[in-house]
Fold each of these.
Amino acid sequence: MKQEQMIKVWDITGGIHPPENKDQSMGLPLAELSIPEELVFPLSQHIGAPARPVVAVGDAVLAGEKIAEAVGAMSVPVHASTSGTISAIEERTLPHASGMSGLCIVLASDGQHRFAEQTACADYRQLDVNTLLEKIRNAGIAGLGGAGFPTSLKLHTQQDSPIDTLILNGTECEPYITADHRLMLDFAQDVVAGTELLGFILGEPKRVVIGIEDNKPDAIAAIKHAVGDKAIEVAVFPTKYPSGGEKQLIQIITGQEVPSGKIPAALGIVMQNVGTAVAAYRAVRFGEALTYRITTVVGEALDTQRNIKVLLGTPVAHLLNENGFDSSQSSKLIMGGPMMGFALPSADVPVVKTTNCIIAPSVEEMPPAPPAQACIRCGLCAEACPASLLPQQLYWYAKAEEYERLQNYNLFDCIECGACSYVCPSTIPLVQYYRSAKGAIRQQEQEKVKSDHARQRFEFRKLRMERAEQEKEAKRLARKQAAEQAKQIAAERKAAASTQADAPDTVKDDPVAAALARVKAKEQDPAAQKAKLERALDSATSRVEKLQQRFVAAEADQKEKFEAQLKQAQLRLDDAKTKLQDFSTASQPNEVNLETNLKNNLENSLETKAKDSTASPEQTQSLKPAAAETMDAATAAIERAKAKTQSMAEMSPEEKLKAQLTALETRVQKAKEKLQKAEADGSEHVEALRTGLEKMTAKLVNTQEQLEQLSQ
Amino acid sequence: MAFIRASSPHAHIANTTGDVMRWVLLATLPGFIVLSHFFGWGTLINVVLACLCALASEALVLALRKRPIIVYLKDGSALVTAILLALALPPYAPWWLVIIGTASAIILAKQLYGGLGYNPFNPAMVGYVILLISFPVEMTSWSIPQTLLSGGQSLPSLASALQLVFTGADTVDAYSGATPLDLFKTEQGLLVEQVYQRHALFSDAILAGVGWEWVNAAFLLGGLYLLYKRAFTWHGPVAMLAALALMSLLFYDGGSSNSGGTLWLHLFSGGTMLGAFFIITDPVSGATSNRGRIIFGAGVGILVYVIRVWGNYPDAVAFAVLLMNFAAPFIDYYTVPRTYGHKKSERATRSHDS
């Protein structure tokens, strides 16, 4: 007798002991069904991208023939599980909690179950690892334990993180399910052979362990017998749900915890379901594609409860009917176990690669949960949680939609095992709350990514616009400089022309100077000038008039509103002033400048009044005459300016210039005084005044020069 | 055919919140019997009055809140509050005392906060403290245990007990006497040994005062039953009793006139056991995690000792529990258990910058 040695195992925190309900389906041997008339193959039976059909409607296929190919690395192909003709490729209801539809290949079987040719391989050790992985991938193998992760991908390890522990999961901790139990009993040799194959692919890890819960002594014995002297440990540990969860089984067998957000490979551990190992072995050894699996068919609504070697794609209804399903007794249909399985929307969905169990319970067997009561924070859920979460807090914050808090309480470490909901005395559907909160947080994060992206785009656009604006500004400056230079050159040439006879030709030669001259000529056209100025004056006058009227009419309680309007008017006047100042640098400055002064005055008086009105609204009435006075003065000044412009238009150039010069001198003097005053007062207009003065001085100098030239 | 669609898990344990409440009611039975044995009908009258008032108050608020009355009354939580308060009140207390206490507990402390599961304070203790502060005389008039009654005296009959409660007959004084904790506090000039010799309340007792030691033993028994039924975890009660024991050992000082009293006096008199197994185990107003419950329980234990020995009130369970109720959310924030796959436990208040 071989020396039995106990393998050290660790305990998991939490966990529950629901009624096992495993005997019902273990009483009968593994059975097979008749071949259904129609089989349905969803293109997405695994985690990852759906497979792409490689057959067309009407094609004849054999069992084991590929009907859809993998798309990308995170995908596996789909094979026909029997021979027949493709009758449709269409949307069908999927075996999914949501009851959603998805693209499926529908096969009308011919009942002959003819197989495609298979390539056997007597000694896989002669092949390299990549060839083996390709064989496993081509056979369409994805985790049969329930998750459906592409097996070849899980076995494909990185060079820098070698695998030192391979764990075969034969725990089967969920109540009712006995598919792996049956597999380990009936195919113990294949389980061990599969384990060896996976060990070979992973570079012979130091530890290879098959983990089985102690409620399956016959399976443990069978596996131990099959293992014999091979370097494979069989770890037996107490029955407790959810010991078979990947993270939990790693803790039980190695005492280590998979770091949050990492995969077991980070610890040098790979875990595979025993059924997956058998499928991988058969794919490599015999070239068998994944066309069937063992599924537990159980529940009191059935005559026979047992394990079935069922062809993938078989409709659940066919499975149920061949086991004496009494629909009158049943209200629910569950795919998977009672803890983590999902309720099927109908029996018209097919068995897929991950279907380890179909439960058709009677109403008494699985009564609907009574209505949820208030959470009394009894803490039974926290006791049961294998991840050491605080489910009652998670529930509280999930209900309140406090997502940050939920993340602080590590919602995403929840494996949704359902232990908390199971023990909840208030029958609160806790897991449902967590699923929905997880979904909402994921959606929020996606939206955040989207909005971040949009913000980045916006900011980048703003930056681009600013840069374009700067470039434009730089170009404008460059043009202005060029124009000034050209002007200077023209002036120099003009000066030179007064001493040299051929001056006009030089002017003609310079197109910039010519253009400038044209503009100047146009500007000097007194009629156009006058009309333009009059228009500007008219509009300014009418605006000021209107404001005056309103100001007078304004009541004390409307002061605020009026102030805002005044401010606006001031802004407009400012604008007009600037334009007019610019204009004043041109050859007909007197009237314009006069106008500017006038406007300044008006503006000042308006300002003063606005200030007065804010200081003491009751003074409004007394302000009325003052405003009228200012208006009269303004009109008179405008009239005078008009007359002056008229008279100037009739003067000779020399006289004009002289008059201008005198006027300019007076204005410069006045502007100087004004500036001094403004500086003394610390007025905000100092800058504007100073610029105006500078311009005026420049103009004065210019006019003097012109006069000198003329008089020479 | 169409099937019922439900989210997993599809199986549930048979226990319900109503069951838990019924266990608690059952577990108060030994304490109730012992109290009745020593103090007569008064306890039963308290319990009946409190239960009726609690159900009426709860029904009233549920009706105002437009909730299904029967569904909520069936959870038994109002009865639990009523019985715990009734057992803590002096037997033969005037009827209005019980009514005010119970109505405050149910309406103010429980329903105004949103009903079962939302009350931050233990309702029974809120009711108790309201009464203790408002009616100190009535609240400290405990009756004399029957074994200490002098010659011709016996416990009042049911009729005279009802008369006492409802008319406030002047015979009250004949039955009232100090509790062990009261007595110990008023006799502070004496050595512990002298106190124990002079008063029959102590000299006739085994550990901590006639009647009271048995009352506490009975509540301990009920508590152990609940622990066995896993109605709560051991963390809170054990932490409270351990902290109280530690304090009384530390400050016993051999029994001088300044002594805080013996270990047994503190563990087996007053509301110690009722508090440890029936009050601080109220999950709604307590701390959430096991570590938090240890801190919560220890806090109550320490406060009970501090208030009993250095405070103005002879007993302190109610104040201690309410003070720790205040601290429960704070404790929760700092005692989140270490989640699987995390190096250390994280605070619930950390912010996510990323």
Note: The longest strand of chain A covers residues 84-93.
Amino acid sequence: MNWLDTILILGAAFLAVFWEAAFGGMHRLLGAQIDFLPPLMVYAGLRAGLPTIALLAAWGGLCLDSLSATPLGISVAPLLIVGLAAYSSRELVLRDQTFAQAVLGLAGGAGVPMLTLLLLLTTGHKPLLGWGTLWQLAVTSAGGALLTPPCFILFDWLHRSLAHGGAAENSFRADREIRRGRGAV
Amino acid sequence: MLKRPSYIVVCLIVLLTLIILNLPSHTKGRLKLGIGSLFLPLLGLAGSSQHLAGAALDRVMPRGELLQQNEALRQENQGLRFKVMEAGALERENARLRQLLGWQAQQPHNYKLANVVLRDPSNWWRSIQIDLGSRDSMSLNLPVLSPEGALVGRISSVGLTRSQVVLLGDPNCHVAALVENESRDNGVIGASGPVDSGFVELGYLSRNADLKPGQLVRTSGLGGIFPKGILVGQIVDAQPIEYGFGAVARVKLAANLNALEEVWVIVQP
């Protein structure tokens, strides 16, 4: 991971938030808007470093809150917690397996809205709540599970296409060198 | 293991978030509008692409259909002209009667048409953003109507070029309303369920309220934000609450909040 990947992830977060706000078809169809930020955060948590995770949480959260009636800064903490959870377990999960990615996306898709709701209620706000909230959580979780594997495919492809490839390992080894000349036995 | 710079970045972000959360609401609002304005280029791009798509559709529309539409609009125009003449006569009569009774003359409202540019991306609120801001003389709490004249909500925050509108059914949008029946029952439109945006609850009704399905609900003018008489919707059903000490009714909204593309804002006369 390098800074180009970080910039790509932050750019994708910006576009994702705009898409969510500009095109309400999903909300009309399913009664809930699918959030693209948890899948991106799961990707960042499994592939990127801590600075990228923190930047994505801050940037994505602030962008989302700026277009929403949610108080500014509320969405940052849930995204950061999900990113840190994915980061801390990255060595324990089979992160290249599609199923593992989908399961983590499902958890992220459920975790971010639940933590946001908890924060909103803790800070004294009164969001829209009811039995329909369970349906909305199911939709966002399923959306997270569906979108996370494509996220990995897209960003891994972008990484391969745009980032500088590592130098191929040389076959030369110093201990296998055949010394010639007078000193040679 | 984690490197020191990583810790520093995470700590800085956490600190920044805590600072933003603790800012005064006025500063927070300004910061919110500032960050939201980063999306303006994308909004312009989306608007021009829609315009281009519309222009392309106009080009491929058959001439016969255009003529048919033109004829229908001409007939509608004639009908509307006749209604304007009638309304003018009624207005003059109303003014004369008011003068005779010594009533204060009502100021007519001014309307401004706005385009809906964004919807709330989160599932916790019901709000939209329109393309009129403080430079178009928008201010807080101005009522917003659908193109058909039904109530949609009120303006909750104003930027230079955009304003946020809280829609009916949002927990932050309460409307004093009355039912068009014999007893003119008063109530307050409150929040709705999170999924279905077509219905809202009319609460604080008296236990003797004479509610029947199909009765129209309009703004009562109480509270001073919404002018009296704007259509909100119609009663679907009602049930007693608080052991029969009050009643609550379900109201089907007249405006389709999911399909809003343009809205009218009532500006101060």
Note: Residues 3-162 of chain A form a domain with the Arp2/3 complex 21 kDa subunit ARPC3 fold (CATH 1.10.1760).
